[in-house]
Amino acid sequence: MSESTELRVPLPDLTAWTCPAPLRDQPRVVMGHGGGGAMSAELVQHIFAPAFGGQTLSQLGDSAAVSLGGVRLAFSTDSFVVRPLFFPGGSIGDLAVNGTVNDLAMSGARAAYLSCGFILEEGVEVSVVGRVAEALGSAARVAGVEVATGDTKVVEAGHGDGIFINTSGIGLIPAGVDLRPERVVPGDVLIVSGDIGVHGVAIMSVREGLEFGVEIESDCAALGGLVEAMLAVTSDLHVLRDPTRGGLAAALNEIAAASGTGVVIQERSVPVPPAVANACAILGLDPMYVANEGKLVAFVPREHADAVLSAMRAHPLGAAATVIGEAVEAHPGMVVARTGLGGTRVVDLPIGEQLPRIC
Where in the numbering of this chain does the PurM-like C-terminal domain appear (predicted)? Predict the structure, then answer.
């Protein structure tokens, strides 16, 4: 084709594009950076970790295990920006306690003290603040943890979303307990404590005004007692995680990457309640990526798996616990699901979050 007749196609205007999974090369923060998936991990690895430094931070677990005066402590912090503030089965106050208590429990620690910071938007009703505070205090009493210190700030109207909460917590790690993904080895049995995807769908139902034929309540709960029941069987659990943002898929991918093992799950064994499955089918979501707030996953040495599973099922928060897979030598760092039809599919780390602002 001659130069005079060459077809010239204008370059596309990328700034006008939209995408539910935002492009990873972003000059500005987008919602996907807070979703607990690959974009969140990149933000931590390339911005925060190099800036802060330190060996303790490099653990990148749900909580950090630290030594102070010869005592091993778990230390964690979390911020809660859920919308709406109240939802079936809980509120931002419940989440603020249970989220941090559960992060500590994943290190084997029982939470002892919490700090609590409230960021209030100018104009929010004082009665709403009171309801949230009451819910937070009630959740703390149920979890057996004391709110020992706190702070309050107010931002101008339009610069917040009613109420944001930050909680930090500390707890004592029992002697002989060493829970971290690097301990996972091929042959470990993978157990989930119950139905997945419930919290995310509960939030979605009220936020978007959707009805699925039955009310779905969040599974928000403090998991310290369940973890204690598991550790009473054996202190030789390898790793625990609560699959919150990014769901079960994100938690398993993080463990596989840190341990250098492969993970195989039996898709039909993953407990997804019918209401969650139906909601996800309607909305085109995968329950594996939907957030939970009262579930845990555990990699347990095979010789202890039956006893640990029995102990979990004897606890109210683990009554539906089930084995869903194992760690393997093949495909290190990768999570694979075996489907009901006999095939396999890769369960990737999500880029962002299917539903933002769920915790």
Answer: 186-331
Helices and strands (H, E) in the chain, number of each type? 9, 14
Residues 90 and 88: their CA atoms lie apart, in Å, by 6
- The CATH number, out of the four listed (3.90.650.10, 3.40.50.300, 3.50.40.10, 3.50.50.60), of the domain defined by the range 181-346: 3.90.650.10
pLDDT digits (tens, 9 = 90+) for 103-149: 999 999 999 999 999 999 999 999 999 999 999 999 999 999 999 99
pLDDT band, very low/low/confident/very high, at 48 (cuts 50, 70, 90): confident
b/e per residue 52-89 (b: at least 16 CB within 10 A): eeeeeeebebbbbbeeeeeebbbbbebbbbbeebbbbb
Give SS3 for 90: strand
**Global confidence as pTM:** 0.86
